[in-house]
Amino acid sequence: MSETYHRVVQASDIEEKAMLPFVVNRWPLFLCREEGIVHAIINRCTHAAAELAPGGKVRRGSVMCPLHGARFKLESGECLGGTGYKPLKLFPWRESDDGWIEVAVPDEAPGMEHLPVKALV
């Protein structure tokens, strides 16, 4: 599966512990920063298919799902404490010379297993 880098946001706009949701080339993802390190992660919990951002929380090296509290490691996507939960998909990223965060997402459209289910309100 080929991937292409896309400009998403200025690096300076990603505040510590904030979760910024984006759709990049149809892929739902969020960017966050913890202890100065940026992470680009799919915006879909692997347990209940809920959106992780903007309602989730980043702390102690993990992101917590706002729906049911499942926690996933930012560095690997691995679930902490849940059995049988698949890891979150992580996206490669880079910072351009002019300060933009660019994220590599697949050129192919995401499948249903990659899209979050929106809560009914």
Concise description?
With 121 residues, this protein is an all-beta fold.
Kindly describe this structure.
The chain has 121 residues and is mostly beta strands. It has one domain (3-108): Rieske Iron-sulfur Protein (3-layer Sandwich). It contains no helices and ten strands. A hairpin with a 2-residue loop joins strand 5 (57-59) and strand 6 (62-64). 29% of the residues are buried.
Topology (elements, then pairings):
Layout: E1 3-10, E2 19-24, E3 27-34, E4 37-42, E5 57-59, E6 62-64, E7 71-73, E8 79-80, E9 93-95, E10 100-106
Antiparallel strand pairs: 1-10, 2-3, 3-4, 5-6, 6-7, 7-8, 9-10
List its traits:
3-stranded antiparallel sheet, Rieske Iron-sulfur Protein, globular, 4-stranded antiparallel sheet, mainly beta, 10 strands, 121 residues
Question: What's the N-to-C terminus distance?
Answer: 36 Å
Count of separate structural domains? 1
Radius of gyration: 14 Å
Order of secondary-structure elements: EEEEEEEEEE
Which term fits the overall shape? globular
- Classified in CATH, the superfamily is Rieske [2Fe-2S] iron-sulphur domain
- Ranges where pLDDT stays below 50 over 5 or more residues in a row are none
Number of strands: 10
Q: In CATH, what is the class? A: Mainly Beta
| Beta-strand proportion | 35-45%
Output the structural class.
Answer: mainly beta
Count of alpha/pi helices? 0
CATH topology: Rieske Iron-sulfur Protein
How are the strands ordered across the major sheet?
5-6-7-8
The main sheet comes to: 4 strands, antiparallel
If classified by CATH, what would the architecture be? 3-layer Sandwich
Mean pLDDT: 93
What share of the residues lie within helices?
A: under 10%
